[in-house]
Design goal:
Elements (H helix, E strand, L loop, with lengths): L17 H4 L6 H14 L1
């Protein structure tokens, strides 16, 4: 069985500035790593 999980960056812990949400932002990669860690911990 496969499960697909969709995660929205907005509202995630430690995602606090617009640079985390912009694809061109310097912190977008950091935000993706945070979201992955939080999702895997749940």
């Amino acid at each position: 069985m496969k499960a697909f999980i969709s995660v929205d960056l907005e509202g995630m812990p430690h995602i606090v500035i617009p640079g985390h949400l912009s694809l061109n932002g310097k912190l977008y990669d950091e935000a993706r790593k945070i979201a992955t860690k939080v999702t895997l911990d749940v």
